[in-house]
Amino acid sequence: MPAAPRAPYFVRSFERGLAVIRAFDADHPCLTLSEVARACDLTRAAARRFLLTLVDLGYVHTDGRLFRLTPRVLELGYSYLASFTLPELAEPYLEQLVAQVRESSSLCVLDGDDIVYVARVPTRRIMTATITVGTRFPAHVTSVGRVILAHLPDEEITDRLARAALRPLTARTIVSADGLRAELRRVRRQGYAIVDQELEEGLRSVAAPVRDRDGEVVAGVNIAVHASRNSAESVRRDLLPHLLATVARIEADLGVAGTVTGRAPAAFPCTGTHR
Predict the structure, then answer these.
(1) What are the pLDDT digits (tens) for 3-29?
(2) To bridge 187 with a disulfide, which of 2, 150, 251, 272 should be the other Cys (CB 3.0-4.6 Å)?
(3) pLDDT tens across 49-69, in order?
(4) How many domains, the chain?
(5) How many angstroms separate the CA atoms of 149 and 115, rounded?
(6) Does pTM top 0.70 for this prediction?
(7) What is d(CA 216, CA 226) in angstroms, rounded to the nearest whole number?
(8) Does 244 lie in the same domain as 199?
């Protein structure tokens, strides 16, 4: 599928600079110039200019051969978190939930076609991938993604499923648009989602939507468990009531605080005078 045409204001060089930053991750903390160029589909000369600019700005460090991100990159994400009150509001409730069920819990929002973890309280590691604040997964294969997607307008759901990469991550992954659409309708009706080993073998999760004071779904909270210790039925019977009670407490505080959020990185309430 050809790339959508860019608007006249679009700054391609800025897009490429951000791509250079995103080339570094947990599996590739240090990269050579050639590796960055290849990952970002840039010429070596262009990759060198971007990297050295980031070095001058303090976002990248180099020993002359290898490049790596510096802690200053955290400032980019902190600006978002500092203006987004929901994670701070939800975290004490997630901690209480984890103490009750002795399983990990997270708060996630929708960003494009991915869910992004914005708050997390872990107990033990149950996934191959390390999950931290900022971790992303395709929304359609996660319980928390499905409870958010399920409450989008039907036309938007159709558009998202049409462009989603519906590939099998496990033998259980739903890979048809019709199957996903039916599952999202079921999630919308019942008010929660259980995903059984579709993202990773051995991982079950249950999620419920978080609504703001206007009733709009703005996030989701999940509980993730190991399939060998928790059947789908025990997740529904033993964990779901605690999850729904936690979400109700978060929503009550959202109503009191008057916090209105949107799917990341949508606009947040900005009031007062700005210089």
Answers:
(1) 567 788 889 899 999 999 999 988 889
(2) 150
(3) 999 999 999 999 999 999 999
(4) 2
(5) 10
(6) no
(7) 31
(8) yes
